């Protein structure tokens, strides 16, 4: 599966309550279950008026279909080209 970053513009996102986030999570899980294809919601991050989600599936159109079924925006869907972190600094050059 391919990893994607999804940017969702939601006014007031940072003010959503834990209960509202739980409702969104339930809706997302139901949308995932309804797709009938391999799909993993990895995690989401709330920052200002945006929610950034990390999902894994085969293609961007499946991400957009998940958003349609869930009733939430997918303003930008970007395929992750690579991942790195602090441990990457310890890799030796070839």
UniProtKB/TrEMBL annotation:
Domain of life (superkingdom): Bacteria
InterPro entries: SCO4226 (IPR042557), SCO4226-like (IPR025336)
Protein name: DUF4242 domain-containing protein
Organism: Aeromicrobium terrae
Highest classification ranks of the organism: Bacteria, Bacillati, Actinomycetota, Actinomycetes, Propionibacteriales
């Amino acid at each position: 599966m391919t990893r994607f970053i999804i940017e969702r513009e939601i006014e007031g996102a940072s003010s959503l309550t834990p209960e509202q986030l739980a409702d969104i999570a339930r809706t997302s899980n139901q949308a995932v279950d309804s797709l009938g294809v391999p799909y993993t919601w990895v995690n989401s991050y709330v920052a200002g008026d945006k929610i950034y989600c990390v999902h894994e599936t085969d293609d961007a159109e499946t991400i957009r279909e998940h958003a349609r079924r869930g009733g939430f925006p997918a303003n930008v869907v970007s395929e992750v080209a690579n991942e790195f972190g602090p441990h990457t600094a310890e890799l030796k050059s070839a």
